[in-house]
Design brief:
Elements (H helix, E strand, L loop, with lengths): L1 E5 L2 E6 L13 E6 L2 E7 L5 E8 L4 E9 L10 E2 L5 E4 L2 E4 L5 E4 L4 E6 L2 E6 L2 E8 L2 E6 L11 E2 L3 E8 L2 E8 L7
Antiparallel strand pairs: 1-2, 3-4, 4-5, 5-6, 7-8, 8-9, 9-10, 11-12, 12-13, 13-14, 15-16, 16-17
Length: 181
């Protein structure tokens, strides 16, 4: 349940819309942009939860997906694409834009988000997850010290994930003009 409160009217109680797979009460909710909440409910399967993106303006579910029940730990802080509408909540990608999406990234620990591409680690190796029309594709570096491939290039910047010792670093490299590559 949630409430709308305005200065010139009494508070109005509203029930959250419930996804089909949900049972019981929500276990977590986090504001994810504008008037939207990411809400987690348990399901009949103890290993799965359902995460729904709820648009509060119309009190409707904009997108939802089954996620691992351990995917959304308490106190999860979003990792956000500062220029766009995507963010991660633990290993779950949420796009709150005009074409909303909720997608479980699997065993990935996100560190940066650019559009629907997530950079981070998987099993302590650099990894890149990309959400496309066929779902999430996860590319994990195979050898120690190997960097995950360049997976995002914009008009002005290339993003590269590299390892330095025991850290994974995201580099943003500006485009430069030169006679030699």
């Amino acid at each position: 349940m949630w409430w709308t409160i305005s200065p010139d009217a009494d508070p109005v109680r509203k029930n959250l819309p419930r996804p089909k797979q949900a049972v019981g009460d929500p276990t977590a909710a986090i504001a994810v942009g504008g008037n939207q909440l990411a809400v987690v409910w348990p399901t009949k399967d103890s290993e799965k939860d359902v995460l729904a993106l709820v648009g509060l303006n119309r009190n409707t579910i904009r997108a939802s997906a089954l996620i691992r029940s351990s995917a959304f730990p308490p106190g999860t802080e979003p990792v956000r694409d500062r220029a766009g509408s995507t963010r991660t909540l633990g290993p779950v990608l949420v796009d709150v834009g005009p074409k909303p999406v909720v997608a479980d990234l699997g065993e990935m620990t996100p560190e940066a988000v650019i559009g629907r591409t997530v950079y981070g680690t998987s099993e302590d190796k650099p990894a890149v997850a990309t959400l496309g029309p066929d779902g999430v594709k996860l590319k994990v570096a195979e050898n120690p010290g190997e960097s995950a491939p360049v997976a995002a290039v914009t008009k002005n910047i290339a993003f590269v994930v590299a390892t330095q010792g025991d850290e994974t670093v995201l580099y943003a490299l500006p485009r430069t003009e030169a006679k030699k590559p």
